[in-house]
């Protein structure tokens, strides 16, 4: 058994997020493990840019109210206890609802080769982000 050192919280970079987002890396496995786990905290209206994961991603909401959308799909409201999975290669975004904070556990795997874990696209515009109350 190995007790892992707690890493400092990090601010989500502006290239990948709109608004105030902070994350804690819980686990970033080294080969042969490809597991990744982050606890991510979003301020109201904060959100990721469009992105996709080589091996898919699972989100588990721990507090607040969040939103998630696949490109071309409906916006899904997420509440504590909800779990959402996006399959490999599916473009999506996720973040907090307009008037609520939201925290989720993000789980994904690295592909284990030269393929990037995550591809980042353009920011979700204010027109794309639903500004209605949930």
Q: Can I get a quick summary?
A:
The chain has no helices and 13 strands. With 134 residues, it is mainly beta. The strands form 4 sheets. A 6-stranded antiparallel sheet has the order 1-3-4-12-7-10, with no helix packed on it.
Outline the fold blueprint.
Layout: E1 10-11, E2 17-18, E3 21-28, E4 35-42, E5 47-48, E6 51-53, E7 57-64, E8 66-70, E9 76-78, E10 83-86, E11 92-96, E12 102-109, E13 118-120
Q: How can the largest sheet be summarized?
A: 6 strands, antiparallel
Strand order of the largest sheet: 1-3-4-12-7-10
User: Average pLDDT across residues?
Assistant: 93
Beta-sheet strand percentage?
over 45%
- What general outline do the C-alpha atoms trace? globular
Q: Can you give the helix content as a percent range?
A: under 10%
Query: Helix- and strand-based class?
Result: mainly beta
Strand tally is: 13
The poorly predicted ranges are none
Distance between the termini: 43 Å
Q: Can you write the helix and strand succession as a string?
A: EEEEEEEEEEEEE
What's the number of helices? 0
Radius of gyration over C-alpha positions, nearest whole angstrom = 14 Å
Give a written overview of the molecule.
This protein has strands at residues 10-11, 17-18, 21-28, 35-42, 47-48, 51-53, 57-64, 66-70, 76-78, 83-86, 92-96, 102-109, 118-120. The relative contact order is 0.26. It is 0% helix and 46% strand. The strands form four sheets. A six-stranded antiparallel beta sheet has the order 1-3-4-12-7-10, with no helix packed on it. The chain has a three-stranded antiparallel beta sheet with strand order 9-8-11, with no helix packed on it. Strands 2-5 form a two-stranded antiparallel sheet. Strand 3 and strand 4 (35-42) form a beta hairpin. With 134 residues, it is mostly beta strands.
